[in-house]
Write a structure and sequence with these properties.
This protein has helices at 7-27, 68-85, 89-101, 107-127, 130-136, 139-154, and strands at residues 46-49, 52-55, 158-176, 181-196, 202-205, 211-221, 231-236. With 239 residues, the protein is of the alpha+beta class. The chain starts with 6 loop residues before the first helix and ends with a strand.
Length: 239
């Protein structure tokens, strides 16, 4: 018994009791009234308005970003209009009016289509292809081409024709007349054309030489129509 209560053992017991007492005073004991632990999954404090809880953002949400694609298209359209107008403010205003009436219109896309239409029309005219012309020309313009073809056929002539290219194409006028959008295009074409009689003799043109031809055509369409195609409503030679 004396060995059990020796001095070192008593000192160790006293130290242990002192440490337990200090831990109790620092940590305390649970009484059932403690605050619940913080819920770290909540992203925002909550306030009550009219008895209902409303989430209050920690910082203001940024305003919705504008439609960047729409802005980019608008800038691209304006750049194409300025390039096509080449400083002609009247033409630029006309192109903007056309684009506003017909959201599918852009100068570059339109000119690409106009080039293809020009080649198809002049080739169809040389070959006497009335069906292609009927699809691409307004009724009155088609009738003029039809008469020229009929006169050529009645004379027994044929046209040996080769389309070479379009070194220059430009828009010269544009407008929206509240019913149709109209765009006038000036074409400078390179072609080889030789009119021959029924015996093959050359009547007009030159089968061995490229000829420069200048035309000015007006294309039109109703922007409210489901038909996306443009038709040629007027043809002529530039002044």
């Amino acid at each position: 018994m004396d060995d059990f209560l020796d001095l070192p053992t008593l000192i160790a017991i006293v130290v242990a009791v002192f440490v337990l007492f200090r831990l109790r005073s620092v940590l305390g004991t649970r009484t059932g009234n403690e605050r619940p632990p913080i819920d770290r999954t909540r992203s925002a404090p909550v306030e009550k308005k009219n008895g209902e809880e409303t989430v209050v953002p920690l910082r203001p949400r940024p305003a919705p970003a504008p439609d960047l694609d729409e802005e980019r298209r608008a800038r691209k359209l304006e750049a194409e209009i300025e390039q096509a107008a080449a400083g002609n403010e009247s033409l630029a205003a006309g192109l903007r009016a056309v684009a506003e009436a017909d959201p599918t219109f852009t100068p570059k896309f339109f000119l690409d289509g106009a080039k293809q239409a020009y080649e198809m029309i002049v080739t169809a005219f040389a070959e006497g292809d009335r069906q292609t012309l009927r699809n691409l020309l307004d009724k009155e313009v088609f009738e003029g081409f039809q008469r020229a073809i009929a006169e050529r056929e009645a004379a027994g002539h044929r046209n040996d024709f080769t389309f070479v290219g379009l070194p220059r194409v430009e828009i010269t006028e544009a407008e929206y007349d509240k019913r149709n959008v109209l765009v006038t295009v000036r074409f400078q074409a390179e072609v080889v054309s030789a009119i021959r009689d029924k015996d093959g003799n050359l009547v007009e043109g030159n089968a061995d030489q490229v000829e420069i031809v200048a035309d000015e055509w007006t294309f039109a369409r109703n922007p409210k129509s489901r038909d996306p195609n443009w038709k040629v409503v007027a043809t002529g030679r530039p002044d």
